[in-house]
């Protein structure tokens, strides 16, 4: 008798499908399907996926006009609650949005899981656990020894990502244009090494983010050495990673994981960044990454780019961060949860 396929409702954040958490959700949904599960993705209607897709909103909040997202909290709540009325059709309901998902989880009889894609307080953790959700952290650094149900890092569909083993032609900064991401440090490194720098990332709509961009990025963009490319489709991101000498990732505050560093490695591109968590945890090979909190040492690493091995970068990503490895870890967690009902 054939074993029944595990049926999973994957509930995505309501934003665009190019941000770190959103890309991670897409990768997980498609990897789980390849691993034998039956996945239904609950996500905005403009997301692109190969699995069954139920639209939670007509389009992503990022792609809405200003007048369409006046009630943004209501939209975020709606995106998480739609699964409730269909939840009995699934074995597991897996959320990926820290805000509002617990309201839905409280109304669902089936087991629920929440992956924490951002850092979280002790109070938030307790609130989420009270709703009955099993909690997954992305790294030891994010979990900080607290009582979570699993620690499972992100993964990438390695077979779909074409690496380049040729020396790149520019430095790359990839991430939100915000103070904590360190784009100002990336620009300083480029200026002091004489290297071209391509900056890819979302500015954001707040006055603070726009002011930061104007003062710390736009004034340096000259289209000769420093280039701002805005946001690009995810497949293009891999192309830009593959064409880079190195990814600059000089974050200033701890993050939950740092997916872009894995995307670079998958493309054969080394990472030069700070020793801020969780980077020392996930980048533990000197042939693929150099980490330092001293800008002068980061500059020196760029000047000595031949210290890295692009083949080693790709192999490190394949061995540690393939999306099928991630999927199998989640399937083990789901089975454990279902056995303990």
Task: Describe what you observe in this structure.
The chain is an alpha/beta fold and 341 residues long. The protein folds into two domains: 167 residues, 3-Layer(aba) Sandwich (Rossmann fold), CATH 3.40.50; 163 residues, Rossmann fold (3-Layer(aba) Sandwich). The protein contains 13 helices and 13 strands. The strands form two sheets. Strands 3-2-1-4-5-6-7 form a seven-stranded parallel sheet, with helices on both faces. Strands 10-9-8-11-12-13 form a six-stranded parallel sheet, with helices on both faces. The longest helix has 17 residues. The chain starts with 6 loop residues before the first strand and ends with a helix.
Write the layout of secondary structure elements.
Blueprint: E1 7-11, H1 20-34, E2 38-43, E3 52-55, H2 72-81, E4 92-95, H3 101-105, E5 112-115, H4 122-130, E6 134-137, H5 140-143, E7 150-151, E8 171-174, H6 183-193, E9 197-200, H7 207-216, E10 226-228, H8 234-242, E11 246-249, H9 259-266, E12 271-273, H10 279-282, E13 289-291, H11 295-303, H12 310-321, H13 323-339
Parallel strand pairs: 1-2, 1-4, 2-3, 4-5, 5-6, 6-7, 8-9, 8-11, 9-10, 11-12, 12-13
Helix pairs in contact: 1-13, 6-11, 9-12
């Amino acid at each position: 008798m054939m074993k029944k396929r595990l049926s999973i409702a994957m509930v995505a954040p309501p934003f665009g499908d190019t941000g770190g958490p959103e890309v991670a959700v897409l990768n997980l949904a498609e990897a789980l399907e390849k691993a034998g599960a039956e996945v239904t993705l609950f996500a905005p209607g403009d997301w692109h996926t190969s699995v069954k897709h139920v639209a939670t909103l007509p389009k992503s909040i990022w792609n809405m006009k200003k007048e369409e997202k006046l009630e943004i909290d209501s939209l975020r709540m709606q995106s998480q609650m739609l699964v409730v009325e269909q939840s009995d059709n699934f074995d597991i309901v897996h959320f990926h949005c820290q805000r509002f998902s617990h309201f839905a989880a409280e109304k669902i009889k089936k087991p629920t899981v929440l992956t924490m894609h951002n850092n979280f307080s002790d109070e938030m953790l307790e609130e989420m656990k009270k709703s009955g959700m099993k909690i997954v952290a992305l790294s030891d650094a994010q979990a900080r020894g607290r009582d979570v149900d699993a620690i499972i890092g992100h993964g990438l569909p390695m077979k779909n990502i074409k690496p380049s083993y040729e020396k790149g032609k520019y430095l790359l900064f990839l991430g939100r244009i915000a103070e904590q991401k360190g784009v100002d440090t990336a620009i300083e490194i480029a200026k002091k090494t004489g290297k071209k720098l391509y900056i890819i990332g979302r500015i954001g709509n707040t006055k603070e983010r726009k002011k930061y961009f104007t003062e710390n990025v736009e004034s340096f963009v000259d289209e000769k050495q420093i280039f701002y490319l805005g946001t690009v489709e995810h497949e293009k991101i891999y192309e830009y990673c593959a064409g880079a000498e190195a990814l600059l990732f000089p974050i200033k505050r701890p993050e939950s994981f740092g997916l872009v560093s894995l995307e670079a490695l998958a493309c054969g591109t080394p990472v030069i960044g700070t020793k801020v968590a969780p980077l020392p945890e996930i980048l533990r090979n000197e042939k693929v990454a150099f980490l330092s909190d001293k800008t002068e040492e980061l500059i020196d690493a760029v000047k000595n780019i031949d210290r890295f091995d692009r083949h080693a970068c790709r192999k490190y990503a394949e061995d540690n961060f393939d999306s099928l490895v991630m999927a199998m870890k989640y399937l083990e967690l789901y089975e454990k949860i279902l056995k303990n009902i």
